[in-house]
């Protein structure tokens, strides 16, 4: 085979491999360690529950996603909650909040919030007044099924944490108007209930715990 043909063939093969790898990339939820092992955590030994947050604020960590959420004004935060007790804890009433240095209160966004931002529909988002609901795809604008699935898979969705287990997932905070949301900020978690329906003491995590940890930026 002529040298030029061989070179063209090799280049074509490499290109196909690269394209195939890009097309095959799928979101994979990171595994979770017990919450108390993360730099940014709050442990309640008496209640036997600990929570941790791990912001995906740098490129090497955020590369697990197919979407540049930071570029679209969202900060993905890996959220971990560990229950070392003998009874389940309920997260049905859970409320996650990030309080910034300037006292802005940011609440975890819903899947619809994130999709709406990514889709940037040209039409307005007035509520549907028809007697039947519109198909779901009409609400999602230009977001692809792959992106939609990624957001739903990534979102923290657990409603309870079973005894001696850990639940994990991502919380997305809208930081579109905030240049540096983490310095001086604190994460709060409320609405965690024990098996009898009693609310546990709220959890508080200063984000400086994350920013000051040497290993915090690692994937």
Question: What does this protein look like?
Answer:
The protein has 219 residues and is α+β, with helices and mostly antiparallel strands. The protein has a single domain (28-211), classed as Sandwich (Immunoglobulin-like). The protein is built from six helices and ten strands. The chain has helices at residues 3-24, 59-62, 111-119, 136-139, 145-154, 208-211, and strands at 41-44, 49-55, 74-83, 89-90, 95-99, 105-107, 160-161, 165-174, 186-190, 203-206. The strands form three sheets. Strands 1-2-3-8 form a four-stranded antiparallel β-sheet, with no helix packed on it. Strands 6-5-9-10 form a four-stranded antiparallel β-sheet.
Average of pLDDT: 84
CATH class division: Mainly Beta
With strands numbered from the N-terminus, the spatial order across the biggest sheet is 1-2-3-8
- End-to-end Cα distance, whole Å, is 45 Å
Q: What level of helicity do the residues show?
A: 10-25%
Structure at a glance:
By secondary structure, this protein is of the alpha+beta class.
Features:
single chain, 219 residues, alpha+beta, Immunoglobulin-like, four-stranded antiparallel beta sheet, globular
Write the layout of secondary structure elements.
Elements lengths: L2 H22 L16 E4 L4 E7 L3 H4 L11 E10 L5 E2 L4 E5 L5 E3 L3 H9 L16 H4 L5 H10 L5 E2 L3 E10 L11 E5 L12 E4 L1 H4 L8
Antiparallel strand pairs: 1-2, 2-3, 3-8, 4-7, 5-6, 5-9, 9-10
